[in-house]
Design goal:
single chain, alpha+beta, 5-stranded antiparallel beta sheet, 3 helices, 23% helix
Length: 106
Amino acid sequence: MTKLLALPLLLGLTGCAGLAFARQGIAHGFIYADATTPVHVTNNNVGRKTGEACAMSILGIITTGDATMRAAADAGGIRDISAVDASIMNVLGIYAKMCTIVSGTG
């Protein structure tokens, strides 16, 4: 009986992890997603340095991490940001990871 009640609950939670990052403007897939999209471009010179900062979510219940542009710039040693991209990876809505990727010059 307990197993019969657990199945609808698990099916109902499937897809919840991806909802944690739903407002990021990135394509989402119900079963699997692994996509990158541009977010912002500046007038600064395009640099060779890149930095990445990520946040992850489990079932949309637990979300942790610092995926800010500042954290990504600090990770890459970037002072002048020229472009910002975002990527998301989502597996069955159980686990999702969203990263901010910046490029620029130091």
